[in-house]
Amino acid sequence: xxxxxxxxxxxxxxxxxxxxxxxxxxxxxxxxxxxxxxxxGISGAGKxxxxxxxxxxxxxxxxxxxxxxxxxxAALVEKSADIQNAVIVVDVREGLTLDRLPEILKRVxxxxxxxxxxxxxxxxxxxxxxxxxxxxHPLGRQxxxxxxxxxxxxxxDPIRNVADTLIDTSNFNVHELRALIQARFGNEGQSNxxxxxxxxxGFKNGVPLDADMVFxxxxxxxxxxxxxxxxxxxxxxKVAAYVRGFPQTQEFLDRVTDLMLYLLPHYVxxxxxxxxxxxxCTGGQHRSVMMVEEMAAALQRAGYQxxxxxxxxxx
Length: 315
Fold this sequence. Notes:
Blueprint: E1 35-41, H1 47-56, E2 60-63, H2 70-79, E3 85-89, H3 101-109, E4 113-120, H4 123-133, H5 145-160, E5 165-168, H6 174-185, H7 188-191, E6 195-202, E7 213-216, H8 237-244, H9 247-269, E8 274-281, H10 287-301, E9 305-310
Parallel strand pairs: 1-3, 1-4, 2-3, 4-5, 6-8, 6-9, 7-8
Helix pairs in contact: 1-6, 2-3, 9-10
């Protein structure tokens, strides 16, 4: 898939009047049923698209609210009869005050159930997106995009460390990111269904950023060394049959399937709505692809909503 998210441009902060008496949160006053989502992350990872997806779900959306106003905004949402859920984008445009977010977040969580969603993507993907959109990085035009990304990651470290959810958008286009947001945050109380993503990848390209569990399948014989399989992937029936033909393959699948069928109901009970299971081999083309297909099919047969993704397999 070709990511088509547009890197968000710098925008002006919304005008907001500060109340004469600042909100004084009192522990234990969290109002049930209401929620505040803080969307943040690396520029170009899809924050603007995520904000629109939340807005379509009925969230009251605000882009780039100054951090100092966050407790007052939470108090407003908590008291409002018209606002049930709200979403705010906080990003590098906030500047050096970003390191105060963990402290401010503690005060906000006393008022509202709050989640921090951090969007990220691989550097190469971010650079390509900026090249495609021809938009400057928010940190300015004086540095290369690659250097600006490094600086931005350093500035956003305080936020990443307190994030509840990390989403790697490297392999998502706008529509897939929207579907993920809707599946994860839409009508959770009504369906309470767990969406499981099974992702194949190659260790040579790094572990997926948003993986909750990682299984290494490099212990299996590598089809890459079979000439007729080299240019194929684990989606090919002949390659899948080759990998499946080893006794350790079926034993591994049985053990991991049993583990997942044990764990998933507990994740559902704890309110988790999205889980990423990653299977890695050397290049992400043969063994891990076959494993993802097998695992996705097994979990679907068990009644779970499953999406199979092949990050590094040739398209």
